[in-house]
Design goal:
Layout lengths: L1 E2 L2 E2 L3 E4 L2 E5 L10 E4 L2 H9 L6 H18 L3 H12 L6 H14 L4 H41 L3 E5 L15 H9 L4 E6 L6 H13 L3 E4 L4 H6 L5 E4 L3 E3 L4 E4 L2 H10 L4 E4 L5 E2 L5 H4 L8 H4 E5 L5 E5 L12 E4 L6 E4 L2 E3 L3 H7 L6
Parallel strand pairs: 6-7, 6-9, 7-8, 9-12, 10-13, 12-17
Antiparallel strand pairs: 1-2, 3-4, 4-5, 10-11, 11-16, 14-15, 17-18
Helix pairs in contact: 1-2, 2-3, 2-4, 2-5, 3-4, 4-5, 5-6
Bound molecules: 5-S-methyl-1-O-phosphono-5-thio-D-ribulose.
Length: 361
Amino acid sequence: MKIDGTPFRSIWRAGETVRIIDQRWLPHEVRVVALSDRAAFATAIRDMWVRGAPLIGATAAYGMAVALRADASDSALDDHWQVLHATRPTAINLRWALDRMRAALAPLPAADRAAAALALADAIADEDVELNRQIGLHGLALIKAIAARKGGRVNILTHCNAGWPATVDWGTATSPIYHAHNAGIDVHVWVDETRPRNQGAQITAWELNAHGVPHSLIVDNAGGHLMQHGQVDMVIVGTDRTTANGDVCNKIGTYLKALAARANGVPFYVALPSPTIDWRVKDGVAEIPIEERSPAEVTHVQGLDPEGRIVQVRISPTGTGAANPAFDVTPATLVTGLITERGVCAANPSALRAMFPDLAP
Ligand SMILES: CSC[C@@H](O)[C@@H](O)C(=O)COP(=O)(O)O
């Protein structure tokens, strides 16, 4: 997508150098940084310079490629896998990308691994762009149908940032929105701010603004009220891990939106590329590891001060503790449909298996 008229991806290569947008500074500054060794890649994923399930996967792939330049032995291949895999626990794309890299590289002579790894990381990044573009086309059909039925503006609620900065390009939840907007459909997006880190306020609002998509920022608790008053036509969110049964794990608060959507008859869609499916997991609530992040993300908020400095401000009493589970699981029964690169399917095991017979074990 474009920033001030210039096309950008969230991660890219200039020669041998891998660059990212350091998302900690959005929306106030577009800061581009180069990641030059394994430690830098691990820090960038763990400390959320990059975030969003598909981008975490692509970054890990490039991290493996850069790490292999320093040491491409068999034991190093496993060690790079371990270090990069330990960065964040919930998004399955991380493991998917690292497993794919290791499986392709292990049979090669050590001397050939680094170059092959870079080419494979490029392929993973390019594939992600295409998967998300396809998701957009399938989601577009859903939005078109609502626009035709309703005969006016389509109001879509989204949570967190499942936009282009969470992927390599297009986004998952935002791809149908961009496609609809580009096709001339009048779409308006309710953007949940998404406490505690405010990915909605900081990143989704920024990218929709940059592309000229009408949107309104809302506090996380406003969605139910808007649904009760007929102001939400559909919900589209992303996911960090989707089980073989169709449960979806996404940013904390997604589950409450799904409950409110069900109570108000609002369709609740989840957009995902197939690498986000964890075929080994059936029961999302019981089996998906939920990342617990720093209490400081809850007790403080980050923003720009009048002098233009990014600062953290305490909002709770000193001494008050905080819990910070970063994700929750929405059971498949609350999901209207899964928007994948191959089409829209029901969130149940047989529909998922029928959509991906070649991937399901
Ligand atoms: C297309 S991204 C889907 C999800 O990864 C996204 O909704 C999300 O929850 C991101 O969480 P984050 O903690 O910012 O990495």
